[in-house]
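The freezer alarm interrupted the setup, so I double-checked each line after restarting. Inputs confirmed:
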Amino acid sequence: MKTYLFHGQAGAGKDTQVEKILEKFDVERIATGEMMRRMKEDKDPYAVRVFREKVEKGIWPNPEETYTMFETWVKRFDPNKDWILVSVARYPEQIPYLDKVLEKVGRKLDKVVHFTLTEEEALERLANRKVCPKCQGTFHPKFKPERVEGICDLCGSNLEVREDDKPESIKKRFEQYAQTIEPWREEYKKRGILLEIDASPSIEEIHEVVLKNLEFTNGR
Ligand SMILES: [Zn+2]
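Predicted 3D structure, all chains:
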């Protein structure tokens, strides 16, 4: 079974690429965005405690806590399928924690796929992006237009332009990303598993590059 880590800055389209893979292959998509809330709702004792002691006081859980929850979280996914971890390690300090969790479940990263954009491209993509406030679907007039203007294809809600998609905020985010990602890239490059994909071509072209470079076990 293959284990991949996908990452890229906002606008690089990594989530769209994961969706395209899921259309063709039976793969587990594993992200941490919902992890804490879902585990708390399911009354996982550790998550409940972290929530009470940290999140409710406005403190972000530390890596130790996050990856202790992640160790429980990954057990929800089928070990007999390929896994795509979406931005599960995005800072160099998180890498050893992720390694440890994967080791415990008998897996290791086969490839780390980093979708890259130049600052100019990031600006063009994000500045015109429309986001669904209800289901988080994203659309773009040039790269991924919605079927009916201003209406989410997925759930029918009115689309919005986010405050942090204004050019000034995008520039600032781009610079922050470029700084923090460098040591992360170096680590995976050193291991020989980093695959960088230029995210400026069309969704279909990028999808082809992804398929050429990755292997998936179970077709749909
Ligand atoms: Zn929607």
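Quick read of the result. The two ends are 16 Å apart (CA to CA).
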